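Table S5 (text form). Sequence records supplied for joint modeling of the two-component complex.
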Amino acid sequence: MSCCAAGLVPDPRDSREEILLASRPIGDGERQTELSVPSIHCGGCIHTIERALHALPNVSYARVNLSTKRVVVRWRSEAEPPPLIETLDRLGYPAHLFDFGTEQKDPALGELIRALAVSGFAASNIMLLSVSIWSGADAATRDAFHWISALIAAPALLYSGQVFFRSAWRSLRHGQTNMDVPISIGVLLAFGMSAYETLHRQPHAYFDASITLVFFLLIGRTLDHLMRERARTAIRGLARLAARGALVAEDDGNRSYLPIEEIRPGMTILLAAGERVPVDAVVVSGQSDIDCAIVSGESLPQVAIEGSKLQSGVLNLTGPLTIVATAAAKDSFLAEITRMVEAAETGRSAYRRIADRTARLYAPAVHLTALLTFVGWMIVAGDAHRALTIAVAVLIITCPCALGLAVPMVQVVAARRLFERGIMLRDGSALERLAEIDATIFDKTGTLTFDRLRLAAAEAVPIKALAIAASIASRSTHPYSRALFAAAQEAKLDLVTFDRVTEQPGAGLEARTADAVYRFGRPDWALDGTALDVRASSAVLSENGKLRAVFQFDSELRPDANDAICTLKDLGISIKLVSGDRDEPVRKLATLLDVPCLAGASPRQKIEQIAEMSAEGHRILMVGDGLNDTPALAAAHVSMAPASAADVGRNAADLVFLRDSLLSVPYAITTARSASRLVRQNLALAIGYNAVAVPVAVLGHATPLIAAVAMSVSSIIVIANALRLGQARPLREASSRKTGSHLLRPETVR
Amino acid sequence: MNDFFFLIPVALALGLAGLAAFMWSLRTGQYEDLDGAAERIIADEDAPIRTRAD
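The corresponding structure-token record, covering 804 residues in total, follows.
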């Protein structure tokens, strides 16, 4: 078999095996695969992709979803998996696989929308009947309308109200109250009393109030859910960075592609260039360069030779390696990180959301007021029926309709604003926590800088040497080569063509012409016995063993990193740089950005750093991307990760930003702060409404008409106030304009 | 006044019909891909999507 993992391109066979592992059977001898294709953007894409996929053998169904940028493909399972990813790649649409199982339909959303539809239908019809009652229907008509309203309201409440009843019951059983307790009691009492009134032909029934209340609250609930769901799907759609399986060489000489969970210590794994190491392993043969950026924060590629230990998750760059697993997946570095994340999460004190904190005070206050009203009217009038009617009216009018909308509406608007800037918010509580922070810890590699390298001091390198080196480098995917090639393209240099370029994994590239041998790579390999002061971040170009040029590389700073740091300082947030990288590059970046730093930090030290600062009373935002940052992401008060972060890191972070610019961080904070201000305003409005409405109700003047008007008006006011967030000019623009002129130009770290 | 009572069941029936239509559209996935639906309507071909379903 000739397709043993070799060369620079990952073996297409592997991706087919991956497709098989990531698909699920759907019956009739077919399997279904879901692909995320982020670059789908128009009707033309739909057409191109569907036609190309249908043309593949064994594919029975292919459909693009433009809203979620995803493709569903069904194929016959007796045959080989079709080359889906290669086909899409050829069309210019990079795609990656979804795990089966993660992509089930969301039952909660369907339930909420159905409940919303039913309550909307009931509310509108009952309201129509109520309007005719309020405009003075005679007694017989009024009673008939009450009966019809009761018949509509009863099933609608039973169906739509479940959402609140269930949650209220769960909370009561645990001896707590949440917002759903006063809602459920209010709605049920209003319905019960109205049914009693209807039976006894009384003039006042609150069917409309009870069902409208459910309708309004369901709007808030559904929006809240939609917001979280959208962020979750967007995050799930990002590329998976951990390996799904590996090509294992068995004792009898056969090769098989095994899922990660089945890999045991002692198994021999064939690792192609471009693949990630699946489990902790040691190299037995081959030589290559290893990219550890996402695992340890080390920004420069490392050489892997026989005997090198590799942590799971590191990326093999240049040459094929044969490695032997030293630990099973569940004992590997990755699994250890996952355990630290869990420990950090349980250690963090549970955050109570503003709405729940309000409910804890609100529910007893409301119920006490209703009880006092009942007692008061019993003493004054001595009429149990009248006292009960008024007490229930108090409950209805204080039912937290506006309160239930006050918080979710603001958070939905804020989440949409963040979404437009490519920032995914996992849930509303993250927004509340983000508004409270006063300190930020940044990781270096991959967060403040990109994973990719760039050529430093390009102007110091002779043009001719740069052109030659870049021409050689254009054949390789090593980070140094890419950086060099990019620098040559930027300088618009004409590249030379070489007949033959060979890559020595772990050493460098060699090119031959008729009269010269050029080598680009490690100094000790490229030069003839010359003792050159070797720096870790440099490569040389040699001609027939003589030095032609030295190249220094550094990590490229994310765009606007400087602006972002300055803006954060303006917001009164203290900043610290904590990185797993070596001391020198960390210190250099810290000096450039003028922030304190801690280099060479292990994952545990990062957590300790957070614990220490929390103990001093700081609330910390952790921004990081690597595996080594993940426990810290979980331990911090709130956390952000770039889209390029490791899978576990992305899952542990509260916010994920998709764009390159680091300005996403201050933008998210200012949005969270203005959202928090609006939430407080809204809560004040809702409480102010109660302050006016409660005395009216206690004095017995709350007719169904007044209740309906008061409820609607307060809800509309709260919604309108929340929508102001959509228009408010972000603080960031104002502050960066103020400081922007004398900022350092974004520079690179050396 | 009583002559117009028949309007109430008519109104309710219309409302129920609307509700049923909404439930149907929800169940059959009409809202799964709103952006895609807007684009597909101007695609030239009317080729069935399941070209190989047999």
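Note: The mean pLDDT of chain B is 79.
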